[in-house]
Design a protein that fits this description.
The protein has 355 residues and is mainly β. It folds into 3 domains: 11-76, Immunoglobulin-like, CATH 2.60.40; 90-215 and 317-354, no CATH class; 219-312, Thrombin, subunit H (Beta Barrel). It is 10% helix and 35% strand. The protein is built from 5 helices and 19 strands. It has helices at 100-105, 125-128, 148-155, 247-255, 348-354; strands at 11-13, 26-33, 37-45, 51-53, 60-66, 69-76, 113-117, 163-176, 184-196, 204-208, 212-213, 219-221, 230-233, 239-243, 261-266, 271-280, 283-288, 306-312, 330-334. The strands form 5 sheets. It has a 7-stranded antiparallel β-sheet, covered by helices on one side. Strands 3-2-5-6 form a 4-stranded antiparallel β-sheet, with no helix packed on it. A 4-stranded antiparallel β-sheet has the order 11-9-8-19, with no helix packed on it. The chain is flat and about 75 Å long.
Length: 355
Amino acid sequence: MGSNLRSKSIQGYITDSAGNILRNAQIVIKTSNPTTGSVIVDSIKSDDNGYFISSPLPDGTYDIYESGIRITRTYHIVDKSKIQCYKPNEENYITTLTSFTGLLNIEKLNNFKCFLQIEPEFIDIFQFGNIFPIYDVDISGIVDSENELLNIAKFFNFSEDSRITTTRFDIEYFAPLTSVSSQYKRIRWAGVPGIRFKKDSRILVPIDYFSLVPSLPKFYIGSTQSADIEFDPITSQDIVIITGSSDIYNEMTAKISIGDILELRLVDSDKWFGIVLGTDGSNIILERWRSSRYLSSTINNPPQIIEKVLLYDGIFQNIFDIDDSNNERFTVAENIYAQDGNSELYNYYYRYQLV
């Protein structure tokens, strides 16, 4: 069970006893525990200014050595405002919920959902209860079609034992641009409830397209550059094909990943948002994105002229294949501004009616 260690670096300046900076000093950082004894966790050199910075390290007590001599002990504390998260245990959630690749085939990627666990396995939920307060009512039994809780229950296939938290959470994930990259893209979900699917299960927080919040665009095509892009709705407003032949269009196509979000800015300031289902040569196939934050305009026929195109990082196919290493890139925090049911950041009623 890998946990979110919420690591951060140890940094500072190395000097001798007289206060002179030590350039290119070999610095070793060690920690110890009763099982393994003293263990080296990092080894770095100071720069020309005597400055050093370690790799990210979790909470703990660390000894810093220079030239084999311990020069200081530091009590390293990582930001405690974030909630520890874990890889979900299959005993705590419904394994039959829809998958990314399966939904691609039927063009319903809006229905994608996966989960992070925010309660550790060693807590006896059945005996002591859950860490976060929940609405202790049978949400699955609500029949009012306009009730927000009813539509959350429908979307997540709730049973009579399921509950949601009064707390709402924000989730961030920092994904490396490549397997060896030190640059990261940031993906965020905001205002999502915690869910307890069974009477004695841990609380999970959902990741889905409905709560996804785009960060800065990773690619942009301006009005003068988008003149050759064609916008073609197929059979309905929900599936769209974009085609083009310019170099800048081909550059954007090369940057696109399945699951990304494309924003099409049309004439008269209208906007249409789509999830990338795939590309085939010069074509980009999009499914209209169901989001309560970013509403798609109606497409006129013949298609409107596209003035600008913005490409955002979206959910990617293997995001639910969380292992011990990439699980540390998730952070979960309480969202105190999304506690009031009358002012949620999203609305599952709107979503459920459209999907």
